[in-house]
Amino acid sequence: MNFHNHHCSSLNNMIDFCRPSKVKQRLFKYYPLTPYHLESFKRHELFFARPSMLNDSFDTSVRMIDPYKSFKERIGWGEGMGQMLDYHGICSFTEGKDVNNEMMWSFYANNFQGYAIEYNPEALYDKYAPAVLSKVKYLKKPLNLDNDNLRLKISDEVFSIKQVNQDDPKYCDRLFHCLHLVKSSIWSRENEWRIIMGNRGTNHGFNMNAMKQGYYLNVETKVYRALFVGYRVPNKELECLMDIASGYSINVYMVEPSIMHGKWDIIIRLKKVA
Questions:
Q1: Which of 11, 22, 53, 236 is most buried, judged by most C-beta within 10 A?
Q2: What angle do CA 199, 217, 109 make, to 5 degrees?
């Protein structure tokens, strides 16, 4: 056997969900002006949406599992497991060099009628275990769950698909965590990081919100670094956001698209110093 070729094949058959382990640039989250987002900001909470509430129809849904008959037989897959999977929670962020991302402002902050918060990654790393800040993996193809040789690495532990069975729920939990971190490469421009609440999350400070769309997690105020407000936010909501930011001692900036030096750009102006 050619050791080099075997070694390369083995490496290519493993997906590492532990790397990168740190945000290299800056971490943002973009919000529309909805009452429950404003209230969660006021109460220094992060909102975790159930997978079925997200805008990607493949986001850890039964669609990622249904095609793999051998895998489903081994884990005893049924409707109840699908429902359990949708009771997980996902909180998404985007990594970037700055908040100048018109696509994110348009899609997630309601075309500058919302706001963005810059978060401190250091205040999120391993602080709310078992929910841990992790990088999304963008793949050209979904995970083949019928490939027993496929190996996954998460939390510095490597396991193979064939280890996932109904007799040991530990590996099933780990696999579902990995599936929450897999997205199609068409979403790669979002450069997403996630904190995931799995089956154990409700025992670690998570609370289901009144609308049953997800969960809130109370966090320390040091997770906030800055507030960026879209230029189309009404004065009443702007004042509300500024009051909240003042309580957290963070700067507030106004954000507006503009053409500068012959290029599409975004102007960021300091509105209030903490």
A1: 53
A2: 110
Q: What is the token pair recorded at 133?
A: 């800040």
Cis bond upstream, residue 20 (ω within 30): yes
Q: Is the pLDDT of residue 38 over 90?
A: yes
The answer to whether 242 and 252 have CB atoms below 8 angstroms apart is yes
Cα(262)–Cα(265) distance, integer angstroms: 9
**In the predicted model, is pLDDT for residue 5 greater than 50?**
no
What is the pTM (predicted TM-score) of this model? 0.89
Residues 219-251: pLDDT tens digits? 999 999 999 999 999 999 999 999 999 999 999
92: amino acid identity, one letter: S
Q: How far apart are CA 183 and CA 136, in angstroms?
A: 7
Give me the long-range contacts of 245-248 (CB less than 8 A, separation at least 24).
245/272, 245/274, 246/272, 246/274, 247/221, 248/44, 248/221, 248/224, 248/274
**Tokens 């609440």 belong to which residue?**
197
Two structure tokens written together for 261: 């030096």
pLDDT digits (tens, 9 = 90+) for 88-131: 899 999 999 999 999 999 999 999 999 999 999 999 987 877 67
pLDDT at 2 over 60: no
In angstroms, rounded to a whole number, what is the distance separating the alpha carbons of residues 3 and 261? 56
3-state per-residue secondary structure call for 199-248: CCHHHCCEEECCCCCEEEEECCHHHEEEEEEECCCCHHHHHHHHHHHHHH
